[in-house]
Amino acid sequence: MDVPFLDRDEIAALTGKRRRSSQREVLNALGITHKVRPDGSILILWAHVTQVLGGEAAKGRAPGIEPNWDAMNARDW
Question: Per the confidence metrics, is the pTM higher than 0.85?
Fold first, then answer.
């Protein structure tokens, strides 16, 4: 089973930062929920990052599909 958390290098790639304090600032600015372990390392779920950044799996629908707004706004119902 794959680990559901980002590793140190993935967090650095996501944030563009190497220092943990700077990484936390970027994560907060992006709205990515994270936890700080007692040793100071950062814990982030892959699923949360995918959801926040708009991954198709997190959307629960196929790309490019939108509701029929004209039908929803029609007054004939």
Answer: no
